[in-house]
Structures are given as structure tokens and as C-alpha cells.
Amino acid sequence: MAKYLLLKHYRGAPASVNDVPMDQWTPEELSAHVQYMQDFAARLEGSGEFVDSQALSPAGTFVRYDGEGRPPVTDGPFAETKDLIAGWMVIDVESYERALELAGELSAAPGAGGKPIHEWLEVRPFLGEHPTITE
Amino acid sequence: MDEALLRTLTPTVIGILVRRGAGFAAAEDAVQDALVEAVRVWPDGPPRDPKGWLVAVAWRKFLDAARADTSRRHREGRVEGEPVPGPGEVADDTLQLYFLCAHPSLTPASAVALTLRAVGGLTTRQIAQAYLVPEATMAQRISRAKRTVSSVRFDQPGDVATVLRVLYLVFNEGYSGDVDLAAEAIRLTRQLAAMISHEEVAGLLALMLLHHARRPARTGPDGRLVPLAEQDRSRWNTRLIAEGVDVLQAALTRDRLGEFQAQAAIAALHADARTAAETDWVQIVEWYDELVRLTGSPVARLNRAVAVGEADGPRAGLAALAELDPALPRHTAVAAYLHERDGDPVTAARLYAEAARSAPNLPERDHLTRQAARLNAQLHR
To answer: What domains can be seen in chain A, in order of their start residue?
Structure first.
């Protein structure tokens, strides 16, 4: 098994096919979307492939060390930041192909008009454990 | 509490419940419930007869569950009070559990999880922690696996090769959590070797022992990977090496070579060298030839190229490497190593850095980055 991160972007991914912003959906369309996400996670738990799912607030702050005894410096948020991560799902699956298949299904979550969003998701493999037998 | 005893008893108790008429899935659930209860109550009041305690509690759990399921009432009345099996039957039951839990209809991850629970006696929580997934996910993985094998007859003969693949995975691909999966894999393989006389079971056990022997030397105090050639060989566990060599030699005399015996033979040759320089690389290349013949595995071919580089010089190693697909994992790392040996640090440094970017795990990435940094520091001095 290998773990993969399915990464969802507010900004930075290519435009979705069904690109109507969420705040212009009907309440029913929003409910259908949320339900789809919940059902998807529940289904993955049932198949023994679910690890984690989290959503992130778009508001972020940059922080860095500013020297001994000084409070850290903060900056941002930067409106021009290219990549803005909206959230993720972590899955533990048998193969890379299975990770792609699941990302494809997640990307089919319904949006405006009840039609799939066709949203671009980024699939990133986790670095695993070092195997014992290597030679 | 004697957790080791609890784990050893698990497959026996499942076998007893199955012989009393419980289905495998229900028996396994009941024993897991009993294990969880044992973990809870044994520390305060350990039973005088742990096995008797487990059988009694598991059987009660089974009856409770069966009572809740009205369709089972008939069978429950019929099976109660059947005799406890003798020792010979217990060994057979445990062997059947190995086969069932590694059934070819299961995915490797499901077979691993089911084996660790039903044969290894680990709790779902421990298995989940060992593989870094939520307990609910692992519970589902296990119950799906049990559904998958629900139509398999318990006494159906199984294939040893599938069991060995599962045990190899447990040994080689576990995370380093609270449960020592490598030690657990060795325990389960040792137990299997005691039940059936099979040269590849012995081969796998030898392979595990010989690699486990090196574990204290494999990582530095800062957690970094120490390559074989740089390991402090005085830290290798000589008792495990001696046992591994004995087990391997006994297996090889049967003259039925298999991939695990060949891999163990390579590990034994490394274990036999007092210093890295004394390694018998010519013999190791011969064993890799056997391994490639037996498996055709590209990983074996890649490792063979490294051995050829040691036996016949880096040019020969690079020539062997040139015949392999460059997309193979670790191909670039091997190329970097051979180029350095060939006196080309510029190419080696570039390839090490490239290999680091595609490393499949963190210790390896750190190791490759450090190799690149070491060469770059020499070049820019």
C-alpha cells in the first residue's frame, strides 16, 4: 500500500470545466456537493483506503524566525500568491493507478447545475518507509 | 501481562472455535474481542490458565454475537459442547489460518492486515498504528478481507508461496511504530517453519534473521542510513547470523533452490565478511545470476549490476547497468555510485542529486543528498 495526497486548490490549478464559483450555486447544489464529499470519504473508509481529509481556510500568514530573543516576523496574506491550497484527502491504496482513479472520482463532485465540476486535483505520493531488504 | 503468550494463543483459539462450529469470520471476531478484554483485565488479574480463559471468553463472545443473530440459533444449539482438539489438530488449524489469511483472492494489504490479526494476535488498533491509518479504516480493511475469504473452506489446502509473500511484506515494508513488525514477521515465519518442512519457508526465515542481525548497525545515532559498506560490523548480532546461516544451510542441502534461499545466500555472504573489503563479490554475482534466473526481477538485475561493479570493476558494473531500463527505481542512485567508483565525481554528484529528487523515502533521500553534498564539497575545495 502507498499513501497519496489528493490536493485541492483555491488558486493555482488549471481552471475547472464547470467553473461557476460556489457562491453562485443554489443551496441545493451546495448540499449535493457536500453530500458527495461525505459519501466519498465514507465509501473510502468502507474500502479501507481512507486516511484523512481536511479543509483549510484561505486566510494564511507567513511566519519566519527573526533572531535570538525576538518574536517571529509575520507577513501576508499575499493576494498575489499563486498557489492557494483549499484542502486535502489522504488515501492509502494498492497502486498509483488506484490513486488516479479515486482522484478522478473526487473531481466529479457536482457543482453548478448538478454537473460534475471536473476540478483539477493534484496527486502527490508520500515518501514511504525505508525497506529493510535493499541488496 | 504476557502479550507474547496472548499473541501465540490467538490462532489456536480461533482454530478451537472453528472446530466447535463457528465460522471463521465470527470466530475471528470473537477472539479479537477476547483479546481486547484480556489486554484490559489481565494486568490486574492474570488467569492461571490463559488459554482456557481465552477459549471461554471468546466462546462466550461468539455465543453472544450468535444469539443476537436469530438465524444462527439452530447452529448454536448444535455446536455447543464439542470436544477441544488435541495438540496435532491445533498445529493444523494454525497452518490453515496462515493459508486462509494469505488467500490469493486477497490484495496484499488485506492479507497482511488479516494475517497480523488472526495469526499474529495483534489488535486492530495496533495494526492501524503500525500502518499509519485510522483504526476505522483498518477495521474495514479486515472485515472486507474476511468477507472475501468467507466462501473459502477452512480446511482447503493453501499455497505456501502466497503465505511467504505476505510474511515478506510484513518484514520489509512496515513502518517503525510501537509494534516491531520485523520481529513479528520473524516470529510468524519461525512458527510456520516449525509446522511445515519447506525449503523456501526456511529460506525466508534465514533471510529475515540475517537482515535483522544487521539492524543495530543500519542507522546512525542521528537516524541516518548507514550503507552496508560503512556499517560497524561489530554491532551485527552474531547469534542471529549463526541461526540464519544454519537455517539456510539446512534448506540448501535439499537442492530445491528458490528466490528466498538465493536472497538469504547473498545476505549470508555479506554476514560472512569481517570487513566490507573481504566480501566475496564473485560468489555474490553468481547468486544474483541465480536470483535473476529464478525471478527475472528487474530489482535483482539492478542489484546484480552493483555486485558486478564490485567484482569486476565499475566499468563492468556500468555496462551491466546500461542493459537495464533507466526508469527503474534506484537506477540513478546505482549509476551515481558506479560513476564515483569509476573516478568521475562530477557525473556522480549530478546523478546523486538527481536520484535524491526521486527517492521513494526520506532516509534514502537524505542519504543521497548527503552523497551529492560530500562530492560537491570535494570538487569545490
So the answer is: 2-125 (3.30.70.1060)
* Amino acid identity, position B7: R
Angstrom CA distances, A7 to A82, A123, B250, B306, stand at 15, 6, 52, 38
Mean pLDDT score of chain B, rounded to an integer?
92
Q: Does A39 touch chain B (CB under 8 A)?
A: no
pLDDT, tens only, B119-169? 999 999 999 999 999 999 999 999 999 999 988 887 777 889 999 999 999
A130 and B131 within 8 Å at the Cβ level: the answer is no
Minimum Cα–Cα distance from B177: chain A residue: A129
Q: Which residues of B touch A130 (CB under 8 A)?
A: 225, 361-364
Q: Which of A47, A51, A129 sits opposite B361 (nearest CB)?
A: A129
Residues in chain B closer than 8 A to A3 (CB atoms): 132
Which pLDDT value is given to residue B4? 85
Nearest to B134 among A51, A94, A130 (CB): A51
Q: Are strands A50-55 and A62-64 parallel, antiparallel or unpaired?
A: unpaired
Here the ipTM equals: 0.85
Cβ pairs bridging A and B (under 8 Å): 80
Q: How many Å lie between the alpha carbon of B280 and the closest alpha carbon of chain A?
A: 14
Report the chain B residue with the minimal C-alpha distance to residue A49: B137
How do beta strands A62-64 and A2-11 pair?
unpaired
Residue B90 has what pLDDT?
67
pTM as predicted = 0.89
pLDDT of B82 above 60: no
Residue B81 has a pLDDT of 46
B266:A135 CB<8 A: yes
Residue A66: which of A75, A77, A57, A58 has the closest Cα? A75
Collect all residues of chain A within an 8 Å Cβ-Cβ radius of residue B136.
45, 50
- C-alpha cell at position A22: 460556489
Residue B89 predicted with pLDDT over 90 = no
What angle is formed at CA B19 by the lines to CA B16 and CA B25, rounded to 5 degrees? 80
A88 phi/psi in degrees, rounded to 5: -150, 165
